[in-house]
Amino acid sequence: MFAALAGKPELCKLLMDHGARSYSTNSIGKTASELAAFVGQHECVSIINNHISIDEVESYLHPKGENSEEKFPQELADFIHAMCSSNVIHPVALIMKLSSYPDALKYKKKTLYVVDRIFEKQLSLRDTVKFVESKSDKAPKEAALLYAKYLLQWEEDQAVRPNIDSLLRSALASFPYQHTLLFETLAKVMSRSKPGERPGAYENIVQGIFGQRLLALSQFCSTCGAVGAKKRCPVCKLSYCSQECQKLDWAVHKKVCSWLATQNLSVSPRDTISLDEIQAQLADITE
Ligand SMILES: [Zn+2]
Ligand SMILES: [Zn+2]
C-alpha cells in the first residue's frame, strides 16, 4: 500500500512477486490498487491489477500429474514471467526482451502455449517467431531485431509508423475476448482514428488500458513505447527512453527527422539532449 501510494511501480511488482496479496484491505477497507487509483498512481494500479505470479507460469510449464512432460529451464519460466507480468505491450519492447533471451525460441511451442494461456500478448510474439524462422540464415537475436526494425519503418508524410499501427490493429481484431469490457473500451478508443492517422493504435490502446491521464502525463519512447521517455531529439523533439532505442531507430529517424520537426510534436523544452551528445552517440553506429 505504501509503495502504491508513493507511486513506485517497480516496488509494487517486487512485493507482488514475493507474495503480497492485492486483495488485503486497510482499516478503511481499501486495497492497495484502490489507494493508488485515489492518488492518481495509474502505473501502480495497472501493475497490481495485472499481476501474474511465477507460480502461475510454472503451473503451465510443468503441469502437475504429467511426469512424462519435458522439463524446462528456470530461465524460461523467468523469461515468460517477465514478458507477461510487466505492463509493457509495445511490440518493439517485447521483441527487445525476446532478443535478450533468444533461447525462448528453442522452446517456442511451449513458450507460445504458456503465453497464450496467460494472456493476449501472443500476437506480436507469434509474428516475431514466424519472422525469425523465415530468416534461418541469421542468429535468432539478430533476426528478432530485424523484425523490430521492420516494425519501426517510417516515411515522411506518414502520421504514424504504418507497420506497428497495422500490427496492433490486427492484434485487436483477433483479440479472443470480444465480449469483455476491456475489448469494448479498446474498440471505442480505437475508433478515434483511422489506420495511419493520429492518435496511432498504440496511443489508443494505452489510453484504453491505462486511461487518459497516463497518456496525457507521459512521454512515450518512440521506439519501444516505454513510459516517461526522457531523451529527446533536439531537432524534431521525438522521445526515446534510452540510447539503445535511439540507436535501433536511427536509420529510420534520420530520414524523417527534418519532416517531423515541422510537425509540431508537443513537448516541454526541458529534457532535450544536445546535438553534440546525439552525434557522439551515433558516431559508433556502424550501419
Ligand atoms: Zn525505448
Ligand atoms: Zn529528430
Describe the 3D structure:
- α2 (9-17) runs parallel beside α4 (42-49), α7 runs antiparallel to α10 (140-152) and α8 packs antiparallel against α9 (122-134).
- Mean pLDDT is 80; it is low at 267-274.
- The radius of gyration is 20 Å and the shape is globular.
- A two-stranded antiparallel ribbon has the order 1-2.
- It has 16 helices and two strands.
- Helices cover 56% and strands 1% of the residues.
- The protein has helices spanning 2-5, 9-17, 32-38, 42-49, 54-61, 74-85, 91-100, 108-118, 122-134, 140-152, 162-173, 181-190, 201-210, 212-217, 243-261, 275-283, and strands at 231-232, 239-240.
- The chain has four domains: 2-49, Ankyrin repeat-containing domain (Serine Threonine Protein Phosphatase 5, Tetratricopeptide repeat, Alpha Horseshoe), CATH 1.25.40.20; 54-152, no CATH class; 156-217, no CATH class; 220-287, no CATH class.
The fraction of residues in strands falls at under 5%
The backbone outline, from C-alpha atoms, is globular
Instruction: Report the order of strands and helices.
Output: HHHHHHHHHHHHHHEEHH
Ligands present:
zinc ion
**Mean of all residue-level pLDDT scores:** 80
Question: Over the alpha carbons, how many angstroms does the gyration radius reach?
Answer: 20 Å
**How many β strands by DSSP?**
2
- Beginning-to-end CA distance, first to last residue: 48 Å
Derived structural class? mainly alpha
Query: Strands across the major sheet, in which order?
Result: 1-2
Q: Please describe the biggest sheet, giving its number of strands, its sense, and whether it closes into a barrel.
A: 2 strands, antiparallel
Q: Determine the fraction of residues in helical runs and give it as a percent range.
A: 55-70%
Number of domains: 4
- Compute the number of helices: 16
Low-confidence stretches: 267-274
